[in-house]
Amino acid sequence: MSLAHSCARALAHWQRPQLQHACRLQNNLPSNAFSTSSVLPGNRAIVYNTNGDPARVLSAFSFPDLPPPPPNTLNIRLLLAPINPADLNVIEGVYPAKPEPDTSLSQVKDHPLFVGGNEGLGRVIHIGEGVVGLQKGDWVVMSKAQSGTWSSAKNVSPSDVIKVPKQGLSEAQAATITVNPSTAYNMLHDFAQLVEGDWIVQNGANSAVGQAVIQIAAAKGYKTINFIRDREDVESLKKHLESLGATHVVTYDELSDKSLREKVKTWTGGKGIRLGLNCVGGKTTTLMARLLGNNAHLVSYGAMSKEPLSLPTSLFIFKNLTCHGFWQTRWYNGKSIEERQELLETLTTLMRDGKLQGPDHEILTIGGMDSDANASETIRDLVARLGRGMYGKKILLRIEETA
Ligand SMILES: NC(=O)c1ccc[n+]([C@@H]2O[C@H](COP(=O)([O-])OP(=O)(O)OC[C@H]3O[C@@H](n4cnc5c(N)ncnc54)[C@H](OP(=O)(O)O)[C@@H]3O)[C@@H](O)[C@H]2O)c1
Question: Ligand 1 mean position to 209 CA, how many Å?
Fold first, then answer.
């Protein structure tokens, strides 16, 4: 696809004078350069220039092939990048971590252009002078938060990426390793000193984090009681989670039934449940917290229902409940590069040993032959569906180079 065509399509779609300016600045071309007929290989990113409903503000944006990397930087081809719930919150402008504008795409200061996506898997394609420890063909994941991974290629600093082994890891596992399995692993280790045979409860158990919790817990010999929303094919979802290692899978409707407390006592043999993990909030989390034993810990890391969490005072007085919040970004910010690498190694070992699968996922490919207008429509439809919930699978984006 020609550069002129790429920019013209993006401009037709956006109808924004500043982007016309941005395209010209990026390509360092005069305005009449759009009449060129030369065909250049190019790239594409999913971008936005204002916060708002992702189904309204996201667009596909084509840009030329990357120039050779400047010294001490490298170019990577992004292979897969997930759409996580927090990515949509970032675009909405309601998430505390804010991305920086991508200055290589938009050099107009008053009209920043942001690339969506926080994590993803890249393959090193060109190494700049002075870069050590990385080679062409290596797989890397992002160590920098809000890296703008919904793109076909990027120029990055070596400190923004961490090398991951290719052997024994699928692209989907590597592309999703830095957020959800890391969160699951740390929450299982940082709050309660669990030993084999201990019990955990969690909600949102079919989420990517929930699936990782189930598998890591099973690998450690912890027992899990997992809560999910009811649905038409609930039995097949229960079976799937059990196949990952869930001890019991229960719907929130079943949780609302008083008889569940007795069932839980039978399952645990009266042993107190030590840890609760909450990514939902609202009334069902109150009910889940009531199942916890003495001196338990309740860790909240998400609020998918958008409802506040309310807990009976008696849980604090008589059961000595301790509540925590967990944010993986805060964990990363407080750790050295060696500690981050150690966590990645622990997770990749679990993956290579077949104890931690990637999330149940679907890959959405934005094809190189698609127009920006079509690609924009595809991504907007998708995020609208994700916003309505009950999608059931993690979506991983594969954005091909434009041809
Ligand atoms: N604090 C951190 O560091 C951290 C790190 C990673 C993730 N998170 C949070 O963890 C949560 C899960 O993330 P993920 O990437 O694993 O998600 P995911 O795979 O996209 O799954 C989303 C989950 O949320 C559930 N859900 C959606 N709307 C809901 C509602 N109204 N009521 C109850 N459940 C609802 C879904 O259930 P259905 O299948 O029934 O729709 C599904 O289980 C998100 O809130 C995310 O922001 C936090």
Answer: 8
